[in-house]
Amino acid sequence: MKGNMISGIVGNSLPLAPDFALSLGTAPVDGQLISATNDVDAIKEWISRYAHSPNTVAAARKDAERFYLWITERGLPLRAVRKSDCEDYREFLRDPQPAEHWCGPSKPRHMKDGSNNPEWRPFVGPLKDSSIRQTCTQIFGLYEFLCNAGYVPGNPWRLLGKLPPPEEEQEDFFERFLERDALDALRRYIETMQDGNKIDKKHYDRVRWIFSALYLSGVRRSEFVNAKMNSIRRVKGKWWWKVKGKGGVTGNVPVNEEMMAELMSYRTSLGLAPLPSPDDETPMVSDVSGKLRPITASALYKLVKQVLNNAAIHTEKTGNLEAANNLRRASTHWMRHTSATDQVNVPGADIKMVSKNLRHANISTTMRYVHVEHQARHNQTQGHQLWENDKVESPSDID
């Protein structure tokens, strides 16, 4: 082992390292516009372009490292990758094999002493079409950068045809929100969590704040866990949340009275003053240790899923199986979809205002949450019948 590199495979584990695997590559070529002398440094130069956005860095690093580990297994440097390799990798993402070599439960990348965790794997399992599309887009961007820098002779990803859009992509997007009865059931379940000891009450206070913040603001989980309390400020008597979003772009989200009341309640439970001050560096959401330590995006996801699953079990016992199923399928990002759906479908809602609140780059993204057209289409279909009306029994008429 030398530096951060591991030059070989030990047992069943991959050649993993804190940065990347084997450092393949050659000396700089004439006209090269970056100083990298090997593939690892070349990839690092590409990732460094996103230094202003930790979330983008993490995503780019993950996708680049997975791809680099894969070509390393083939003995290929970045310069030697051809169109056929790109096609093979795209298919590999659908079913990483051998599975025991590439896939495994989510584990920390490194041990407490900084060494590589032998149980860590690059994938949990096969990727969905949407994730494959995103991954390939990232690697395409990597090769565009390296090609423009003169490090590789060309971008083989440009030679691939585009992936077909996922079937019923619009409808799937449209369905990923909590129906009103599921949202009501979730609220009722969360209220039951406050009954118990002091630890239960602390857990309840945090869970109530998490779901309130996610729903009322529509922020993404990474934006939530990376925020500090002083990002909520009062301007001309109104409270605003300055959110750092995708690509490091910031936007101001209005904070209504209910969200401020929930924030004040949560802060009080932490032993803080009800309102945040400009120098308050307390995490927007903390762990329950009492030390005001931030939680990770992964921890937030797991916590939200646990609450949603428990709410589904609780709701199932009431006989509302549809709401229970809706809750069981939901995740952290569903709260953003639910927030958007409920905001745009309020009678008289200004779509442009909602789009700004959600910080969508294009208003067409916001329009996908509008259900008016779906309702009208469904209502119009009621007149399309084969049998006479008096012989048709509506499911809504059945007890």
Automatic annotation (TrEMBL):
Residues 37-147 form the Core-binding (CB) domain. Keywords: Cell cycle, Cell division, Chromosome partition, Cytoplasm, DNA integration, DNA recombination, DNA-binding. It comes from the Bacteria. Residues 173-382 form the Tyr recombinase domain. Residues 387-399 have a biased composition (Basic and acidic residues). Residues 376-399 are annotated as: Disordered. It is found in: Cytoplasm. InterPro entries: CB, DNA_brk_join_enz, Integrase-like_cat_sf, Integrase_catalytic, Integrase_recombinase_N, Tyrosine_recombinase_XerCD. This is Tyrosine-type recombinase/integrase. It comes from Undibacterium arcticum.
